[in-house]
Amino acid sequence: MSLAGEERKLSIMNLLNEHGKVIAGDLARMFEVTTETIRRDLDELEKENKLKKVYGGAIKLKVEVEPALFERACINQEAKEKIGYLAFTLIDDHDVIFIDEGTTPLQIIPYLSQKQQVTVLTSSISAMMSLIELKKREQFDGRIIMLGGEVSVKHLRVSGAIAEANMSDFFVNKAFVTVDALSMEHGFTSYDYEKATLTRKWIQQSETSIVLADSSKWNKRSMVKICDFENVDVVISELEPPSEWKTQLEDSNTKWMMPSESYT
Predict the structure, then answer these.
(1) Of 150, 183, 192, 218, which sits with the fewest C-beta atoms within 10 Å of its C-beta?
(2) Are 146 and 154 in contact (CB under 8 A)?
(3) Nearest-5° angle of CA 242, CA 64, CA 237?
């Protein structure tokens, strides 16, 4: 049988979803076209991020799913503690800051008892509860502003249109934000569209935007683009960046900070 290009690609995807793998030669015989035509189809589908080409055919893309908050808490814990403390040292008395959801920004909160009159905005339910505990123990004299929005029980955060509307009225001195992946080729990316949208807006609405990202997130790409390096003022990680990143960091004017020293 002979199918138009788009119909053939749709059929290829149906076969791939059913079997997990397709062979170029088998597809050519099935659709009565040349293997070169099938390879072009597979090239186009790969460019659309719908499959991954392998020798002789293609396989399904592995779909990454954001781990739940309690699962993320167990990953690179020591690195996150170091990153959190270094982030804290950038906070001044009377600052207005945003603390993003995620396990790394939570490491900042215990140190806030050392600062005076800091206002904290957050989309993280965990961060809010930790701040409330500090307040109850009279170890935090600042203000807590919890953004409204749709609640994710899995990630203990709020997001969506309501959260975006809430945040549109606020500007902060420093935004401590998280990402799911970063690379020089793709910039900062996230698993989740709504989370990426909020992160991007906080980067835009802060005097200083600070990304907290341990090395497990380097040289990776998630589904949704947040922004490029040139849009971020500071990246804090536990290790020195890869040497091949040096020129691009300088070109983007992004400062890289580590627990032992800073690198620009």
Answers:
(1) 150
(2) no
(3) 30
Given this model, what pLDDT does residue 54 score?
A: 84
Q: CA angle 60-61-65, nearest 5°?
A: 130
Element (H or E) spanning 30, and its range?
A: helix 24-31
Burial of 138 per CB tally in 10 Å (0-12, 13-18, 19+): exposed
Which three-class secondary structure state does DSSP give residue 4?
Answer: coil
Tokens of 41: 């189809």
Q: Give residue for tokens 């080409």.
A: 53
**What CA–CA distance (Å, rounded) separates 33 from 16?**
18
CA distance 115 to 131: 13
Residues 6+ apart with CB under 8 A from 104: 80, 83, 84, 178, 212, 213, 214
DSSP letters along 119-163, please?
EEEESBHHHHHHHHHHHHTT---SEEEEPP-EEETTTTEEESHHH
